[in-house]
């Protein structure tokens, strides 16, 4: 059964780049896309995403609190946070959103697929664990 991935980024360019990275991977299926936090949460529930690639700095009018996002996230969904920044403040924000991993957008080409496979694996059941 393929890993069901939801892309959440307000940049069409970033979403397109991620789709291209994942296009030739039969074990990974992009099931949906979102440009805001509230819609992302709804799609997680509706589409039963295993992995949510979540841009932490989406600029939208539907931003919900990190606490609300994390508390409403379905248990089968794991958050792979992405950001232009990779510093202590961004790591803390990623943890507040329930992310199990944080990648900077520059490293997506080399680290995205291994990260998806890692956090979606049965041994990656550390859904509530600290950020890696």
Short description:
The chain has helices spanning 12-22, 37-47, 66-72, 88-96, 108-120; strands spanning 3-8, 28-34, 51-55, 78-83, 99-104. With 132 residues, the protein is an alpha/beta fold.
Number of helices, where a helix is a run of at least 4 consecutive DSSP H or I residues:
5
The termini sit apart by: 25 Å
- What would you give as the CATH superfamily? Response regulator
Name of the CATH class:
Alpha Beta
How many runs of DSSP E, i.e. beta strands?
Answer: 5
Principal-axes geometry comes out as globular
| CATH architectural arrangement | 3-Layer(aba) Sandwich
SSE arrangement, N to C: EHEHEHEHEH
Overall mean pLDDT: 92
Task: Report the major sheet.
Answer: 5 strands, parallel
List the domain count as a whole number. 1
What is the gyration radius calculated from CA atoms?
13 Å
How would you describe what is shown here?
This protein has 132 residues and is of the alpha/beta class. The chain has a single domain (3-123), classed as Rossmann fold, CATH 3.40.50. Helix content is 39%, strand content 23%. The chain has five helices and five strands; from the N terminus they run βαβαβαβαβα. It has helices at residues 12-22, 37-47, 66-72, 88-96, 108-120; strands at residues 3-8, 28-34, 51-55, 78-83, 99-104. The protein has a five-stranded parallel beta sheet with strand order 2-1-3-4-5, with helices on both faces. Strand 3, helix 3 and strand 4 (78-83) form a beta-alpha-beta unit. The chain is globular, with a radius of gyration of 13 Å. The mean pLDDT is 92.
């Amino acid at each position: 059964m393929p890993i069901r991935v939801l892309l959440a980024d307000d940049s069409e360019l970033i979403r397109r780049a991620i789709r291209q990275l994942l296009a030739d991977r039969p074990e990974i299926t992009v099931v949906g896309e979102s440009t805001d936090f509230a819609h992302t949460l709804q799609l997680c529930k509706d589409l039963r995403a295993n992995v949510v690639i979540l841009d932490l700095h989406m600029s939208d009018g539907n931003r919900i609190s990190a606490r609300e996002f994390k508390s409403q996230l379905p248990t089968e969904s794991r958050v792979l946070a992405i950001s232009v920044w990779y510093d202590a403040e961004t790591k803390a924000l990623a943890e507040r959103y329930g992310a199990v991993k944080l990648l900077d957008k520059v490293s997506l080409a080399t680290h995205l697929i291994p990260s998806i496979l890692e956090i979606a694996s049965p041994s990656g059941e550390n859904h509530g664990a600290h950020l890696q």
